């Protein structure tokens, strides 16, 4: 069970003088929302608030007035809080004063008050609260800012679009008072491009750097242009490309194989390089090559081959002699075998046929056969023996 206590304003009765009449316009007693009206007898004047109310905070929004014999001539002096500025210190009847704050602070309350004929102000003086940020910066065309931060102590930097020029400071800070320590700069349009930086051996057609200027480039004789031959100064104040360079063409550095020597390491255009081999080696390729104007060599470098060794030649000669000797001996042996075989056959046939009475034995070589004849008269037509000759038989004169 929770109990909530009603909010009450302080009692006002002790502050009411005898000649002040009090009328309750709304509510009762000192409860929140109660409104009281005060008045004085006809012969006197009220000095103070004619009407007050009990606020939700438990305080009256004014004080109990008093009745005086003479009409009031002024209001009480205003009590102002820190950082509140007022246009006038005048407190006379019908005076109107205005309020403002120190730079960066925010006004909370009425901007103006009037001193009424009853000798009271028609409201309470306002207050001013400390800032938490600076106002958003208003930037002109072509101005770029590093950050949109507007909090206290924030620092922002300014830049221009390419080619434009910043005409004031490059940075601003948001002060603790909620104001920037200056105004944002502006950027002015370019009237020309920066002066071109040209390297050695580059020739340029003009030194003009104004907007829309077009310049062309070339090289000293014998040099090659690397880059654009023509560039233009754009409306943004920048060149559309950087200036080219000029280089003297060269051929690639030569890579030589083993045992090759060159007359020079020069690889410039028209250079002639000659080659030779170490003692005992043979050059395979061109004896000299030239670096052409397009940066290429007229041919590849040659190579050097080694001569056959003495032992290799000796082995080859010995192998050839052995082959010849072996062939001759083999041929002689084959011929001897054929002769012996033929003699044996002839001897056997002669012995055989001598026993049969044949006294005349002869051998004849036909086109494709070897034939043996035996008869008494030497005129036999049919051979007693016939055989096909071998290649070696063909060499025999039978």
Automatic annotation (TrEMBL):
Presence of the UniProt keyword tRNA-binding in the record: no
Residues passing through the membrane, by range: 321-347
Compositionally biased region (Acidic residues): 389-398
UniProt entry keywords in alphabetical sequence: Disulfide bond, Glycoprotein, Membrane, Repeat, Signal, Sushi, Transmembrane, Transmembrane helix
SUPFAM superfamilies per record: Complement control module/SCR domain
Cysteines joined through disulfide linkages: 40-67, 101-128, 160-187, 277-304
Pfam families: Sushi (PF00084)
Sushi domain ranges (all copies): 7-69, 73-130, 132-189, 244-306
Domain of life: Eukaryota
Low complexity bias locations: 298-312
Location of region: Disordered: 294-315, 376-398
Protein name as catalogued: Sushi, von Willebrand factor type A, EGF and pentraxin domain-containing protein 1
Organism (species): Geodia barretti (Barrett's horny sponge)
């Amino acid at each position: 069970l929770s109990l909530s206590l009603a909010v009450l304003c302080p009692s006002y009765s002790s502050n009411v003088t005898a000649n002040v009449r009090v009328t309750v316009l709304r509510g009762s007693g000192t409860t929140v929302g109660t409104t009281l009206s005060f008045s004085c007898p006809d012969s006197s004047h009220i000095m103070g608030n004619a009407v007050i109310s009990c606020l939700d905070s438990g305080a009256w929004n004014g004080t109990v007035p008093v009745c005086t014999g003479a009409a009031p001539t002024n209001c009480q002096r205003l009590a102002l809080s820190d950082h509140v500025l007022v246009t006038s210190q005048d407190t006379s009847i019908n005076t109107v004063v205005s309020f403002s704050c120190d730079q960066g602070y925010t006004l909370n309350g009425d901007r103006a008050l009037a001193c009424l004929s009853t000798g009271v102000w028609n409201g309470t003086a306002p207050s001013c609260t400390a800032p938490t940020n600076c106002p958003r910066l208003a930037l002109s065309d072509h101005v770029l800012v590093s950050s949109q931060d507007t909090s206290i102590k924030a620092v922002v930097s300014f830049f221009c679009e390419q080619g434009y020029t910043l005409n004031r400071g490059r940075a601003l800070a948001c002060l603790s008072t909620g104001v920037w320590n200056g105004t944002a700069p502006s950027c002015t349009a370019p009237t020309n491009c920066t002066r071109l930086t040209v390297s050695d051996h580059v020739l340029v057609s003009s030194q003009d750097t104004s907007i829309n200027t077009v310049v062309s480039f070339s090289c000293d004789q014998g040099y090659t242009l690397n880059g654009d031959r023509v560039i233009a100064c754009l409306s943004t104040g920048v060149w559309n490309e950087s200036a080219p360079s000029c280089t003297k063409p060269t051929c690639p550095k030569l890579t030589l194989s083993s045992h090759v020597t060159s007359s020079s390491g020069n690889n410039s255009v028209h250079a002639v390089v000659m080659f030779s081999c170490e003692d005992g080696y043979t050059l395979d390729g061109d004896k000299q090559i030239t670096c052409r104007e397009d940066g290429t060599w007229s041919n590849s470098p040659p190579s050097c081959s080694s001569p056959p060794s003495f032992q290799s030649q000796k082995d080859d000669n010995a192998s050839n002699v052995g082959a010849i000797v072996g062939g001759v001996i083999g041929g002689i042996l084959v011929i001897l075998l054929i002769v012996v075989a033929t003699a044996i056959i002839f001897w056997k046939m002669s012995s055989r046929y001598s026993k049969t009475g044949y006294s005349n034995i002869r051998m004849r070589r036909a086109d494709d056969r070897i034939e043996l004849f035996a008869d008494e008269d030497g005129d036999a037509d049919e051979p007693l023996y016939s055989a096909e000759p071998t290649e070696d038989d063909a060499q025999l004169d039978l």
